[in-house]
């Protein structure tokens, strides 16, 4: 999908890490034990697999995201229909080859390629499939919920993630995180930082420093050394980003970029707008490319209000040295993830990943909660009294 080599290797390492982590979860598929209200009776819960589950994955992390889903689905005991993105099917094929080589029995993991309209629709509506895990566009997630029937559905549907920079922040550290969050993976992450909410006191100084750094970024073939930004996934992605640039020119001031790079490859110059209104389209809609909006604010309360002024709620970040600001952000930002003095990207596999509002339906991937998406609870009662006991109405002689 065009990642620079270091990021591509990170994609692979994340898959290694999540398989290793979920292998450990296989030793602690926890249930609960609790006392019964009756004598000589034992109560507990156990986890059971759903059965057949379908995994529908995107192109931007063509190894890591399938691994996030495959590892817990397998460790919970399910069989799998895996549909990788049509933009990156070869990565999915190679991953399944590795799984087969590792000894997974025949028929447990089944890869099917094809379009969402044909293959995707079939796995969503098939009556024998009991669970669906999908990462991708919000509109597709809504289609899945409307058409899946009575299935367990986990959705991760994107974000419009803010980085708040307060007037007491370490600016150089903040800029490191913003460049990584906005232009790493060419902005093609659901956790990408597409909005910087900046305190007005430091706005000019911040923009001067940021521009100097961004103009030094090197675009090119991700397999070459010293490349910072790779291509977008395809021509349609380039056209989409450029449409938002044209919108942005009417909504804010273009500081840099905003151009399609001529020649071979789907390259787009890192783009920054400033003086953007919180209600602007470029500040509210997911662009999924190297486009960043700078929104000035007066204080922490306004910053949090602006951060929440979107339909998504995946990742968020604040740069500050004030503990009060940090804890206000943790408490009040509507997001599944909040970073303090770090970028919006960099999730670790042993912590839950997911969001609120339009980002999803409450499911979490990775971490101990990652197994909940692919298992269900059975409650067990064991009565060893040797007689019929009636809960709630037993008289207890």
Brief descriptors of the model:
single chain; 397 residues; alpha/beta; Aldehyde Dehydrogenase, Chain A, domain 1; Aldehyde Dehydrogenase, Chain A, domain 2; 2 domains; five-stranded parallel β-sheet; 17 strands
Low-pLDDT stretches are none
Count of individual helical segments? 11
Q: Helical amount among residues, as a percent range?
A: 25-40%
* Helix-strand makeup class: alpha/beta
**Elements, N to C (H/E):** HEEEHEHEHEHEEHEHHEEHEHEEHEEE
- What is the CATH H-level superfamily of the largest domain? Aldehyde Dehydrogenase, Chain A, domain 2
CATH topology term of the largest domain: Aldehyde Dehydrogenase, Chain A, domain 2
Largest sheet entry: 7 strands, mixed
Nearest-integer average pLDDT: 96
Strand order of the largest sheet: 10-11-12-9-8-14-15
What characteristic shape results from the CA principal axes? globular
**Total DSSP E strands:** 17
CATH class category label of the largest domain: Alpha Beta
Distance between the termini: 72 Å
Number of folding domains? 2
């Amino acid at each position: 999908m065009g990642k620079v080599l270091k990021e591509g290797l990170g994609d692979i390492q994340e898959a290694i890490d999540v398989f290793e982590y979920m292998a450990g979860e296989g030793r602690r598929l926890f249930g609960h034990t609790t006392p019964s209200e009756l004598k000589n009776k034992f109560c507990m819960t156990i986890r059971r697999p759903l059965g057949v589950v379908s995994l529908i994955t995107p192109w931007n992390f063509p190894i890591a995201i399938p691994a996030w889903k495959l590892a817990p689905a397998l460790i919970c005991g399910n069989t799998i229909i895996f549909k990788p993105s049509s933009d990156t099917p070869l990565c999915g094929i190679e991953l399944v080859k590795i799984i087969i080589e590792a000894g997974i029995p025949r028929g447990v993991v089944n890869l099917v390629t094809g379009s969402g309209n044909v293959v995707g629709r079939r796995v969503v509506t098939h009556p024998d499939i009991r669970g669906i895990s999908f990462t991708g566009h919000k509109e597709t997630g809504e289609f899945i919920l409307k058409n899946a029937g009575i299935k367990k559905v986990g959705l991760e549907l994107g974000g419009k993630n803010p980085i708040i920079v307060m007037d007491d922040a370490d600016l150089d550290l903040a800029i490191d995180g913003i460049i990584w969050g906005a232009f790493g993976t060419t902005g093609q992450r659901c956790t990408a930082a597409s909005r910087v909410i900046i305190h007005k006191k430091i706005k000019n100084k911040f923009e001067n420093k940021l521009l100097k750094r961004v103009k030094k970024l090197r675009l090119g073939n991700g397999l070459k050394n010293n490349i910072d930004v790779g291509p977008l996934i395809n021509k349609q992605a380039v056209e989409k980003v450029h449409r938002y640039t044209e919108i942005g020119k009417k909504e804010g001031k273009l500081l840099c970029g905003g151009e399609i790079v001529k020649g071979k490859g789907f390259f787009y110059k890192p783009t920054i707008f400033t003086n953007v209104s919180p209600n602007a389209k470029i500040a509210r809609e997911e662009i999924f490319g190297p486009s960043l909006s700078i929104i000035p604010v007066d204080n922490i309360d306004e910053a949090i209000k602006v951060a929440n002024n979107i339909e998504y709620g995946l990742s968020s970040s604040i740069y500050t040295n004030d503990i009060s600001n940090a804890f206000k952000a943790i408490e009040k930002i509507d997001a599944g993830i909040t970073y303090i003095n770090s970028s919006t990207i960099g999730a670790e596999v042993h912590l839950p990943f997911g969001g609120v509002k339009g980002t999803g339906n409450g499911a979490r991937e990775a971490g101990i909660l990652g197994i909940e998406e692919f298992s269900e609870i059975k409650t067990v009662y064991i009565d060893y009294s040797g007689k019929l006991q009636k809960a709630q109405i037993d008289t207890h002689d």
